[in-house]
Automatic annotation (TrEMBL):
The lineage of its organism: Bacteria, Bacillati, Actinomycetota, Actinomycetes, Propionibacteriales. GO terms for molecular function: acyltransferase activity, transferring groups other than amino-acyl groups. It comes from Aeromicrobium camelliae. InterPro entries: Acyl_CoA_acyltransferase, GNAT_dom, N-acetyltransferase. It comes from the Bacteria. This is N-acetyltransferase.
Amino acid sequence: MDENPVITTDRLTLRRFTLDDADFLFDLFSRPEVARWSGSGTPMERREEAVERIRRQPERAGDHPACGVFAVEANGQLVGMALLVPIPASAGRTSEGEIEIGWHFHPDAWGNGYATEAGRALVERGFAAGFPALYAVTDSDNVRSQAVCRRLGMTDLGLRDDWYDRSLRAFRLDRQEIAADQ
Ligand SMILES: CC(C)(COP(=O)(O)OP(=O)(O)OC[C@H]1O[C@@H](n2cnc3c(N)ncnc32)[C@H](O)[C@@H]1OP(=O)(O)O)[C@@H](O)C(=O)NCCC(=O)NCCS
């Protein structure tokens, strides 16, 4: 697969982040309604944190060429990010190589179907790469993200503590389910 992939959908372009995107990423994660559902849950306070996050993205994406942390553009403007990355196993549990899909969009861009459209593109990419299943994990009260999972046809696994050392509501989509639908 291409080292610098550009994925296009009807309305979106997904591409790798560059350091030029730090202002956008800072704006995104300085918003409590976005930061609340990511990592420590604390909004970013300094632009340098966004630069650091972009720098760490290759490590987060791991070695598989299909994986990545993607900047999402609509109409030539950044609107969010979408991930296809290895999901970190909780302590004491051996990782079984599970792959996660995820999304964080700017509040101004919510309510357009962009997260679902980007998620669908990454589902296609992940299954084309041969991953047998894709996972999404959400805070138990993150109903907007859970709605995206359902729109993608994912199965609700309920609360699981297998990843991120936390109890999270997990969703899974099997490649076979998609193949069976076609
Ligand atoms: C989770 C998140 C990405 C969901 O964004 P979203 O815009 O609600 O999700 P979708 O892209 O699926 O958009 C669906 C909405 O767009 C509407 N919509 C408008 N035009 C549409 C179109 N052309 N096609 C599809 N849906 C469209 C749908 O009706 C739906 O509206 P509703 O929320 O009123 O029901 C967003 O809330 C977010 O970034 N939250 C903060 C970060 C976060 O929680 N990340 C996930 C961590 S697990």
